[in-house]
Amino acid sequence: MGLRSTEKQDKRGHDGKIVTTKFSTSDDIYRELVQESEESWLYGLVAFAIIEERRIDWVRHYEVTNGRPPNSDETRSWYEQQPESELLRAKGEAENALREYSDEVVQSDIEEYGEKIKENIVVSEIRKLGRFWPQFGVNLAGGVTSAVLFAALLLILAFLVLNDISPVQIGVQIGENPKGEIEEVIGNDKQ
């Protein structure tokens, strides 16, 4: 059990005709699709699983139809009846299944990394905002300083406007008081 009945696929027989592979067991199909295949191991393994799934479906159908599971000779007969095209069909299905799976994985990774990038941007912005109290202190000090400077500027401006000390008036006072003493101009009534 597990030996091939004939030579490997596409070999020429004694009469020059192409001899196709005849499978007797799952070992023969496994060897063909996985061990001796030049294609990817995973690709062959998925194709083998597809063939075996078909065999299991056949066994279930056989049991329902005949009231008993198939014996080893009937199972061997099922394998022997599988044409090369069945392996090619299984390989095609395996290729499609692997392609769909890889597309899903790639799409999933793209979505996952996109979410991680968005989360990292949000987290970094929140961390920047997380320095609230030190920033609050700097902003408060800046606000107080600007208020003090503005108040000082207003006081100087008010003093100049209210005291109206012009250069002409200063000259007049110096002329009246040759010693250079400046008298208070505000509220000074000469009567």
Task: Summarize the structure in words.
The chain has 191 residues and is an all-alpha fold. The protein has helices at 26-35, 41-66, 72-80, 84-129, 132-163, 167-176; strands spanning 11-12, 18-19. Strands 1-2 form a two-stranded antiparallel sheet. α1 (26-35) packs antiparallel against α2 (41-66) and α2 packs across α4 (84-129). The protein is rod-shaped and about 140 Å long.
How large is the share of residues in beta strands? under 5%
Major sheet characteristics: 2 strands, antiparallel
Envelope shape? rod-shaped
The unreliable regions are 1-13
Helix count, per DSSP?
A: 6
Report helical residue fraction: 55-70%
Q: Give me the side-by-side strand order of the main sheet.
A: 1-2
Summarize the helix and strand pattern as letters: EEHHHHHH
Number of strands: 2
Q: Average pLDDT value?
A: 79
Helix/strand/pairing category: mainly alpha
Report how far the terminal alpha carbons are from each other.
143 Å
| Global Rg | 50 Å
Outline of the structure:
With 191 residues, the protein is mostly helical.
